[in-house]
Amino acid sequence: IKSTANNCVIEAKQSGSARITISHPKSKYPASVMVYVTKEGVKPVYITTSQNTIQMGYNEGTKQCSVQLVGSSKNDLSAFSFNIKEGYEVVNLISNNNNVSITPKSLGVALIEVTHPECEIPLEIQVIVVNTNTDPYIDSDNNFLVFENFSSRVVTCSVIGRDDRSDNYNFTFENTNENV
């Protein structure tokens, strides 16, 4: 990976997976980008959502999130599974088909893992529960990248909840698997 300011160029080297962790001094919690690289000629099947990072106020109530399966001819909505991967003490989940209701239990961060039998790659949704919705957090234009061949893509980040444009210059990007 190569980064400048709030942009990170991610270049695929070989098939496999990696997590890019994004941090910023104004954000209490990091964000992440999951990267999956498939072998050449293999069409990936993956799960996607429009809400990769969800910030909730502790007293805000329940939020809804939906997911979709991409790249498969089968789309059995009842086969989606939503599980708390990290932060059991932070949220409760109630799922129905490709939808999940998220209710905050305590302040902190939770990772929800979404799976489907047609898909080898789970989706992770980060949920941040804060005192108020004005607490700054990191958002990226994409937190789930699937490379069908060895190419590169740019991820752009911003600090939500801040008006200072200079905040775009203090991002740190770390790769968990330099081989991918």
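Above is the first protein from milestone M3; the second protein from the same milestone is given next.
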Amino acid sequence: TANFNINLTEFLSIQSSFSFVRFSSDIESKDYNYDSDGLETSSSSNTVNMNLSVMNIGASAVIYFAGFEEKTVRPFIFGGIELQIGSAEEKRETDNSSLPTYKDEENYDEYAGDLLSPFILKLGFGTEYFFNSSLSLIGKIQFNYNSLTAELERESFYLKNGTTYVPTDKQTINTKRIMK
């Protein structure tokens, strides 16, 4: 995270922030099917590669309390907004050579991107301790409020007669979240 601070007056400053995080994971699974006698009839393996990226851009107004002119310790309150921009990319590899051929269609990348991209209002308070005029340490408590909505649509298809995909299942998952 990078923070930039511009002092407008002795008691008021504007702070901007920027951060970027990228996360990647691989998940491997293997499924087995058994008949009523407990003998394995088929198996399939799946590999899912997930890449998530999140970037935050924010701005806050910081108001320092009067009466702390010695500039060693200065308590403050702040409020601001932050925009979080997220994206997701999912890649699946399936080996189900002993199972009937099927495929899934879903908008997971869009769904995860919506979940990762809220608009955030923030309020808080803290204290800044100055070691000298160029170096300080900030401790703060921040309260965030955000809400978001995302919709995941997933449809499964089964290959019938080796030529035509037939829909077998359709799901819609609506996610609404408010964080305080």
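Note on the second protein: The longest helix spans residues 108-115.
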